């Protein structure tokens, strides 16, 4: 794998190989602190991040790399420098990989066609967030052994969610059934053709879920009103304590973060015994180590 730009198109064997490698890291497998010794990994975040940026940084350090943390704030983007000029100038300083987050779908793909080093998509607009999809699948695989025949309900702002797209590709490739649920205005057309079941009725699909993944309502990407009010959205699609009672006893609750507490997910559920949200974050470091190892070989 030269780059990691998305999950779409990856084979089950490719995904499982990455997850196996992450598992070995998590179990304290062979010392990998020399793998990227003397190399630099550049984090290029044109959008804000807490989990993804820090865990790519920790993953790179664990492999012995130095990390260049570039953020748009304070950069020459404010003077009109283009995306390609920015990345070509960063590439000229010699990194072995660029980890890119950008508001425009396809930006990492454009960069990958124009640089010589490895490119990892850390989230591009509403398109994909492949490392998140992998760490979510990894979290479920560790809990269940494998995903075959499991049902994962992904609920909320599907339209604007790159996490939903990467998870749909990743979880279905690993044998799970994915149900995408939300208000009709936040469900783009064509999801069934990607292998998803689609529903607008959360209360009907929740009892079938082995895991439910709540998505953040991305108000910053919504240029118009997609539903009457946030309160209405929370009432119909928020996972509150009463609704969580409808889940199977062993069902898991996930969220990629950051959480709008009290909107898509009630604090008592986010912090409750079903929640694997902080496991997802912890697993992000091992999964991103595996990704960096793979693309920097
Ligand atoms: N899940 C996720 O991408 O979180 P950050 O935006 O904090 O990186």
Task: Describe the protein's topology.
Elements: H1 12-26, E1 40-45, H2 51-62, E2 66-71, H3 83-91, E3 97-102, H4 107-112, E4 118-124, H5 130-144, E5 151-155, H6 162-173, E6 177-181, E7 197-199, H7 202-205, E8 211-214, H8 230-237, H9 241-244, E9 252-254, H10 267-270, H11 277-295
Parallel strand pairs: 1-2, 1-3, 3-4, 5-6, 5-8, 6-7, 8-9
The structure holds phosphoric acid mono(formamide)ester.
Phosphoric acid mono(formamide)ester is lined by residues 49-52, 123, 129, 132, 256-258.
Could you characterize what this model shows?
Helix 2 packs across helix 11 (277-295). With 297 residues, the chain is of the alpha/beta class. The chain has a five-stranded parallel sheet with strand order 7-6-5-8-9, covered by helices on one side. It has two domains: 12-129 and 281-296, Rossmann fold, CATH 3.40.50.1370; 130-278, 3-Layer(aba) Sandwich (Rossmann fold), CATH 3.40.50. Helices cover 36% and strands 15% of the residues. Phosphoric acid mono(formamide)ester binds at residues 49-52, 123, 129, 132, 256-258. Phosphoric acid mono(formamide)ester is lined by residues 49-52, 123, 129, 132, 256-258.
């Amino acid at each position: 794998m030269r780059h990691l730009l998305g999950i779409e198109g990856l084979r089950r064997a490719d995904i499982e190989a990455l997850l196996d490698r992450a598992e070995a890291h998590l179990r304290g497998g062979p010392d990998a602190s020399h793998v990227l010794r003397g190399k630099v990994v550049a984090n290029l975040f044109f959008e804000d991040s807490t989990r993804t940026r820090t865990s790519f940084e920790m993953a790179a350090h664990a492999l012995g790399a130095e990390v260049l943390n570039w953020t748009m704030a304070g950069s020459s983007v404010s003077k009109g420098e283009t995306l390609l000029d920015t990345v070509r100038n960063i590439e000229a300083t010699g990194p072995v990989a660029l980890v890119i987050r950008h508001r425009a779908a396809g930006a990492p793909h454009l960069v990958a066609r124009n640089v010589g080093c490895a490119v990892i998509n850390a989230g591009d607009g509403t398109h994909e967030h492949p490392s998140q999809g992998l760490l979510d699948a990894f979290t479920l695989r560790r809990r269940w052994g494998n995903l075959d025949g499991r049902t994962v309900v992904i609920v909320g702002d599907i339209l604007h969610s790159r996490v939903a797209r990467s998870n749909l590709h990743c979880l279905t490739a690993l044998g799970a059934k994915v149900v995408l649920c939300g208000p009709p205005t936040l469900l783009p057309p064509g999801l069934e053709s990607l292998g998803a079941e689609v529903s607008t009725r959360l209360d009907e699909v929740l009892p079938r879920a082995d895991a439910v993944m709540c998505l953040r309502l991305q108000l910053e990407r919504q240029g118009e009103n997609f539903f009457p009010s946030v309160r209405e959205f929370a009432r119909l699609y928020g996972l509150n304590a009463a609704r969580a009672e409808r889940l199977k006893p062993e069902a898991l609750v996930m969220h990629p973060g950051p959480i709008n507490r009290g909107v898509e997910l009630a604090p008592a559920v986010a912090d409750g015994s079903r929640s694997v949200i902080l496991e997802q974050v912890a697993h992000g470091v091992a999964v991103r180590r595996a990704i960096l190892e793979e693309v920097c070989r």
